[in-house]
UniProtKB/TrEMBL annotation:
<feature type="region of interest" description="Disordered">
    <location>
        <begin position="1"/>
        <end position="93"/>
    </location>
</feature>
<feature type="compositionally biased region" description="Low complexity">
    <location>
        <begin position="27"/>
        <end position="79"/>
    </location>
</feature>
<dbReference type="InterPro" id="IPR007899">
    <property type="entry name" value="CHAD_dom"/>
</dbReference>
<dbReference type="Pfam" id="PF05235">
    <property type="entry name" value="CHAD"/>
</dbReference>
<dbReference type="InterPro" id="IPR038186">
    <property type="entry name" value="CHAD_dom_sf"/>
</dbReference>
<feature type="compositionally biased region" description="Polar residues">
    <location>
        <begin position="1"/>
        <end position="11"/>
    </location>
</feature>
<feature type="compositionally biased region" description="Gly residues">
    <location>
        <begin position="80"/>
        <end position="89"/>
    </location>
</feature>
<feature type="domain" description="CHAD">
    <location>
        <begin position="92"/>
        <end position="410"/>
    </location>
</feature>
<protein>
    <submittedName>
        <fullName>Metal-binding protein</fullName>
    </submittedName>
</protein>
Length: 414
């Protein structure tokens, strides 16, 4: 586990803010793990991008100090040992200078993607690649708007922010399901083909190796008998779910509820509602406090992850990893607002958490298919092997996250 020279932070370095009007730093690459399939579906039956429970940003009049995180480093670049801004720091990102332009830009991207989705969803191009790309871009902009409204709630009109964030979470959940089912089916079918493929020939003169190869060949043969039926069963189940999700998405995009969301985002593209009263203006003065609070919540969640030597796999641990993934996404969006770009050091860990979610959901789909009544024993056997393979993928994703997580002190056992 490597230890970086600097700690993750959303506080701009002093030299990055000198001579800038809004206190934002240089833009970095937009490496969003959820920009592709992640679309985030968590559980297909729930909005995947809804901020996790217990992670609400502090509102006006609430305590704003970040919770203590086990293993959180004491020093931050660009800050003193007490956490205050370093010498030469002349400005901080504000709602007027950083958050409002960011929200307006994401709102414009939302509207642009919506227009492209309508164009590509015409009868001549219905179901094409362009429509899927436009839907992903639409979800991506909606997630960033919703995540920013969640983190920087105190810098905005709280009632408006809560209402729009809830509607955007509903929309992203509806749009993500079809994509999630398609990816899940492709992942499971590809895994079945790999598991039931031919075996490698054993070396000549190696009796033990030959016996092992023979046993393996028999196992492969038994697996091959049920693999085709298992693939057909999964295709029926997941294709049906995908078709229903597609119909639900089309219905949602034509509903009055969605049109109200589009109207609210269109207004956001030109005007960002500000908080009222003296307390609201004080909360909007700086975005550093809520951004650092989102960072501390991420570090706390990562520190609370179960260690990798806890024995046999336990499905109850999946929720903690999903929580860390959602908090990583919120931290990434806050980093984009304050510093103008994503933190490149969190690209690989975010990708690992996306793979973890995909493997968990694929394993759940294989287990659900295995519970189908009156299936042949060979089919159940193939689905059981597939479930174990996906659970191995879960453990591999967890190991990849621990290897790529750049802030090793946050992984110390509590």
């Amino acid at each position: 586990m490597r230890r970086p020279d600097q700690q993750t932070t959303t506080r701009p370095a002093p030299e990055a803010t000198l001579g800038t009007g809004n206190g934002t730093g240089p833009a970095g690459p937009d490496a969003a793990p959820g920009a592709g399939p992640a679309a985030q579906p968590g559980d297909p039956g729930a909005g995947p991008d809804t901020p996790p429970a217990g992670a609400r940003s502090a509102g006006p009049g609430e305590p704003s100090g970040p919770p203590a995180a086990t293993g959180t480093p004491a020093a931050r670049p660009g800050t003193t040992g007490t956490g205050s801004a370093g010498a030469g720091f002349t400005g901080e990102p504000t709602a007027e200078g950083a958050l409002a332009p960011y929200l307006r830009g994401q709102a414009a991207e939302f509207l642009r993607s919506l227009r492209l989705h309508h164009e590509y969803s015409a009868p001549a191009d219905a179901g094409g690649h362009g429509a899927a790309e436009a839907a992903r871009a639409l979800r991506r902009a909606a997630r960033r708007i919703g995540g920013s409204l969640h983190t920087f709630r105190a810098a905005l009109d709280p009632h408006w922010a809560d209402q729009l964030r809830g509607e955007l979470a509903w929309l992203t959940g509806i749009l993500a399901r079809e994509h999630a089912y398609a990816n899940r089916l492709a992942r499971l079918v590809d895994a079945l083909h790999l598991l039931s493929g031919p075996t490698l020939p054993a070396a000549r003169g190696a009796r033990a190796a030959g016996e092992a190869a023979g046993a393996d060949a028999q196992g492969r043969a038994a697996l091959g008998v049920g693999a085709a039926r298992a693939a057909a069963l999964l295709e029926r189940r997941l294709t049906l779910a995908r078709t229903r999700s597609h119909s639900a998405a089309l219905q949602a995009l034509g509903s009055s509820r969605f049109h109200a969301i589009a109207d609210a985002v269109a207004l956001l593209a030109s005007e960002v509602p500000a908080p009222s009263g003296h307390a609201g203006r004080a909360a909007a003065a700086s975005l550093l406090e809520p951004a650092e609070l989102a960072e501390q919540r991420l570090l706390t969640a990562v520190a609370a992850l179960p260690p990798d030597d806890t024995g046999p796999y336990n499905e109850a641990q999946d929720a903690a990893w999903h929580q860390a993934r959602l908090l990583l996404r919120l931290h990434r969006y806050a980093h984009e607002v304050v510093l103008g770009g994503a933190d490149p050091g969190l690209t690989a860990p975010g990708h690992a958490l996306d793979l973890h979610r995909d493997a968990v959901e694929a394993a759940g789909a294989a287990a659900a298919a295995a519970r189908t009544p009156r299936i042949a024993p060979a089919t159940a056997y193939a689905l059981g092997v597939l479930h174990a393979d996906q659970r191995h993928g879960v453990e591999s994703a967890r190991a990849a996250f621990r290897e790529t997580w750049p802030y090793a002190t946050a992984l110390a056992a509590p």
